[in-house]
Amino acid sequence: MNTSFHQKVKYVIKKIPRGKVATYGQIAAFAGNHRAARQVAWVLHSSSRKDKLPWHRVVNSEGRISLRPNYGYETQKELLKKEGIKFDENDRIDFKNYLWDPWMMLQ
What we know:
The chain is mostly helical. It has one domain (5-85): Arc Repressor Mutant, subunit A (Orthogonal Bundle). It is 40% helix and 4% strand. It has helices at residues 5-15, 24-30, 37-47, 73-82, 95-98; strands at 22-23, 58-59. A two-stranded parallel ribbon has the order 1-2. The two termini are 22 Å apart.
């Protein structure tokens, strides 16, 4: 079966464990296209609700929430905090503690 990039992205996002985050770029690379981080954002935008994706666990490569204030930022931050994820004084997530590695699924 030839699984589409879109399906692979959704599969990876569903695997992000509670209390961990992954970046758009990580997900894109694992799904087969390391240059498709924006496509990952599009998949999240178009499929999160209907496919019940844990969208809030996806952040940018700086460890920050990409959504703007009043456009989902506060909701995403609150959901992450409820899972035990802490933010520093610059609203960044410490990847040493919270970054999930999708490549671990292959071991």
